[in-house]
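Sequence in, structure out.
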Amino acid sequence: MGTDPVWIATLREAVDRDGYEAVGRKIKYSRAVIDGVLKGTYGASTDRVKARVEGAFAMAMVTCPVIGDALNRSTCLQEQHRRLGGTSGLRERFKRTCPTCIHYMPAKRGNDDAQR
């Protein structure tokens, strides 16, 4: 485990400290996904999990073209796929701009991101 990438070590420390349930709520992934990632048996790409871990625990920031300032990576991922609804002009700008942004990660059908 000394060879873990930083984000995996961060995830492992968070689980050891706070437990699977609390970490899962924070990064919006199930215990099964977190456990698979930590054991190296997760069968899909871990890019989204990595981005959520970095945003939630490492406070990774990205520059958001919508707000014109730094935005937590975890919040960035949440905004990318939030339903439009009848909310605000800002919500509409996120919906229109996110798919063209360099930080955009398309949702994949049938995977664990549907848990969000």
